[in-house]
Give the backbone structure.
Amino acid sequence: MNRTQLVDAISESADLAKTKAAAILDIILNKMTEAMTEGEQIVLVGFGTFSVKKRAARVGRDPRTGGALQIPESIVASFKAGKGLKDALNGRKVKETEVA
């Protein structure tokens, strides 16, 4: 599912105009980005947890030359699926309130 399909699904489910659904999705994604930029984690019970992790600096290999190169430390986004999502993916019955 891409962004356009998600906006369409939100629009249909919530009986909203596509422009309002797109605006709501933009607000949600912007707020999530702001929170994670500040190092906060986002917990959506039953769905999962978005968090920020540091990836340590390390030595890698240049695929063209085979020589060693230093890869700097970086900050990456991480997602851990919640029980409701795991159950849904594995075909187990999920209560409507478990996955929001």
Remarks:
- The mean pLDDT is 91.
- The helical segments are 3-14, 18-37, 83-89.
- The CA atoms of residues 36 and 58 lie 24 Å apart.
- DSSP finds three helices and five strands in the chain.
